[in-house]
Automatic annotation (TrEMBL):
<comment type="similarity">
    <text>Belongs to the short-chain dehydrogenases/reductases (SDR) family.</text>
</comment>
<feature type="domain" description="Ketoreductase">
    <location>
        <begin position="5"/>
        <end position="178"/>
    </location>
</feature>
<keyword id="KW-0560">Oxidoreductase</keyword>
<dbReference type="InterPro" id="IPR002347">
    <property type="entry name" value="SDR_fam"/>
</dbReference>
<dbReference type="Pfam" id="PF13561">
    <property type="entry name" value="adh_short_C2"/>
</dbReference>
<protein>
    <submittedName>
        <fullName>Beta-ketoacyl-ACP reductase</fullName>
    </submittedName>
</protein>
<dbReference type="InterPro" id="IPR036291">
    <property type="entry name" value="NAD(P)-bd_dom_sf"/>
</dbReference>
<dbReference type="InterPro" id="IPR057326">
    <property type="entry name" value="KR_dom"/>
</dbReference>
Length: 236
């Protein structure tokens, strides 16, 4: 079903964020992406923003509102990793990952909620990871930041659920991106052996779940964690 609602995807210049933005464009939405560098896909408005900076987030929203209109769907996707074992993890390794992945989602959603409350309509979609609830050695910072999005979405649902606003989490597993393509073949084989589906997901399979959550058919779904992981994280 096509719609011309306004969507903002953070980190929409590459990887999963880019695939999500492309899918929204294809479905007729008016799409903006934030990027620290590079451009979003064709048909999108790219705005510069570092999600760790509240003033930059505010300016990005002001530009989108001026050029496209109030943001009705926000996809908090921007994220970083600084993987290392706990004993070697520096304060900065921890703080920067949490400030980007969790703090960035907070800043973006807080700013988006103003317009959503006025419109009495909103879709908040937070991009987490199977690692958030499954865990992963060497990723205490990343996993903590991603699992925190579940508590954030559920608290948001209790606060804003009566105003036509939903908040959900999409938790991708292993996705075919440049990052996974660089893994040694043997490592890829091991990973695939642990996934019941026996393969990695395409970025578009993640985008499908996101676009569905953004639409009218999912208006009674909120505070949910939707895994797109081929069964890897079942029960977690």
């Amino acid at each position: 079903m096509s719609t011309d609602r306004v969507v903002l995807v953070t980190g929409g210049n590459r990887g999963i964020g880019r695939a999500i933005a492309e899918r929204f464009v294809r479905d007729g939405y008016r799409v903006a992406v934030t990027a620290r560098s590079g451009e979003g896909p064709e048909g999108t408005l790219t705005v510069r923003a570092d999600v760790t900076d509240a003033a930059a987030v505010d300016a990005a929203f002001a530009e989108v509102e001026q050029k496209l209109g109030p943001v009705e769907v926000v996809v908090a996707n921007a994220g970083i990793t600084k993987d290392t074992l706990l004993m070697r993890m520096s304060e900065d390794d921890f703080d920067s990952v949490v400030s980007t992945n969790l703090g960035g989602s907070f800043r973006v959603v807080k700013r988006a909620s103003k317009g959503m409350l006025r419109a009495r309509f909103g879709r908040v979609i937070l991009i987490s990871s199977v690692v958030g609830l499954y865990g992963s050695a060497g990723q205490t910072n990343y996993a903590a930041s991603k699992s925190a999005l579940v508590g954030f979405a559920r608290s948001l649902t209790r606060e804003l659920g009566g105003r036509g606003i939903t908040a959900n989490v999409v938790a991708p597993g292993f996705i075919e991106t440049d990052m996974t393509a660089e893994l040694p073949e043997e490592t890829q084989k091991q990973y695939k052996a642990s996934i019941p589906a026996g393969r990695f997901a395409t970025p578009d399979e993640v985008a499908s779940a996101v676009v569905w959550l953004a639409g009218d058919d999912s208006g009674y779904i909120s505070g949910a964690v939707i895994p797109v992981d081929g069964g890897l994280g079942m029960g977690h």
